[in-house]
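Supplementary material to the annual report.
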Amino acid sequence: MNSRLTQADLSAWEDNWTTEMGAWFPGERVVFRGQDLFADLLIEPGQLSWMGLMLYGICGRKFDEQQLKLFEGIWSISTSFPDPRLWNNRIAALAVSARSTSNLGLSAGLAASEAIIYGHRPLVASMHFLCDTRQRLIKDESLEQVLEQRLTRSVPGKPGAGKNRQVAKIPGFGRPITAQDERIQPLLALAEHLGFDKGGHVVLAREIELALQCLGHNLRMNIATLMGALCADQGLNVRQYYHYITLCFSAGIMCCAYDAEQKPQGTFFPLPCERIDYSGPAQRQWE
Amino acid sequence: MKENISSRIWQEFAEADDPFSAARCYCCGYDVFGELIKKIDWLDYLYLLIAGGRATDEQRGILKVLTVALANPGPRDHSVQAAMSAGAGGSGSAACLMAALAAGAGNFGGAREVYQTMQVWQRCGRDIQQWQLDLASQLQAITTNRPCTSEETTAINEPCSPSSVSADLANADVWLQMEHPAGFSPYAKNCPTPVKQTLLHLVSVSSGSHLCWLSQHRKILEETAMMPLAMSGVAATAFMDLNVDPEQGEMLYLLLRLPGAAAHALEQRENGWQDFPFFADGLSLRNDPLETEMGKNPAARHGELS
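Predicted assembly:
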């Protein structure tokens, strides 16, 4: 197939954005994925929560109350830490400490959440890994074979430092700062309470963890795998999942911004000059 | 133990009576306020900061051309238009530039495309056969992972069945797959005049091997890619002659395209929202429950919007 679009194709798009996502009719109504936002979606008895509305926008289907509790619980338990030392949270704290606006800090913090050692990139990669593995097992490959292939593949960079940093070879297993992921148990408890702890992807995640131990890799499932498994079990695909997690850090980031607002300007972890360890060229003259 | 910032770029010495105020700042070993501000200009300093060393006269020449060629992609460009959209609504200056960065970061004419193109350079060097193979491979990947038609989108939006998973598995990252060969322009009929002019002028100031090679092989590359060279491809090649790596090139491209975004955002902020296209008649809603024709309501053009 020739994927090239011709000039005529682009002209066809001029003043023509065709969509099923929705539109605003000024002063009258809003259509949201084929339904009237005010009459059909937000008025009892079919009222949707904000999470429900967002997921309806992303996936085009309505999730039930139990599912929405799970989706909201995933955010609350997994990605809402109000600790300003965490990298994305820190951006908002720095912004507001420097007396920028919270919104700018939050926006930049969310953008930074597309990181490699945490955040959206390992989250997406983890779900992709689970779905891909499930596909390959359906095609009669063995789990050991899939994992060995993953572990031995050559990648241009490492997650933690260096050029061309990449997410881990087995994304969603192992953790950089501490081996123990304190979020697994509470999220599993929520999933169990809601009846979602025995879905196919959650079971597969446990099998992968076990298989990794058998192969001699002490890599425990981290929260990225459990989040991805639970969402895949609810039928989200990788791109839908990516959009679902886009705002998942917002509660923690916003709290850090608000906290910084309460403190005097410029006081967030100030650094004296001597706390820059310089290792570059010696002092020299520009001749 | 106190944790410090490690840097090969910056060193500071504090004022005698104030540990938080720097008396002297050194960039890569050079005294910034004692010497550099008297001796160098923005281009020297930019190169020193990004590349860690002094630009040669030739590299300064390349940067000089790039700073003009890239500074303003014009108000139709996605990144500039994003900044203008912020400006027209009355958003703050940082929001305007953040908008430009977001829309100008991508695979289609943005900084990610420059990054991708520089990676092609790293894979292929100045070997035309390697380039042809690589471009063919890129086209093959695009065919396999091509964007969905609206009918196919419906299929992908279905629950995570094995068939919909396989359609979605190409996206293992936050970045979408390339939809055209990196560095080329999927919508242009021929190589646009400004792209040719920029390449020509860059070649005239550079004896660097990448720009010359691109100029000599442009047509055969365009034939293989089945589309003309884009400005992102020229910029990526110039960055190769600047001896920076893909991550440095990506960052430079983002930086160098901001002046136009800033200028146009300021202009639109002053002009106001009523003077900025709303595309009032441009939206076609396929599933309006009332089957009302969209975009005809004059209220969209008049009165204050909250």
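The first helix of chain B runs from residue 32 to 39.
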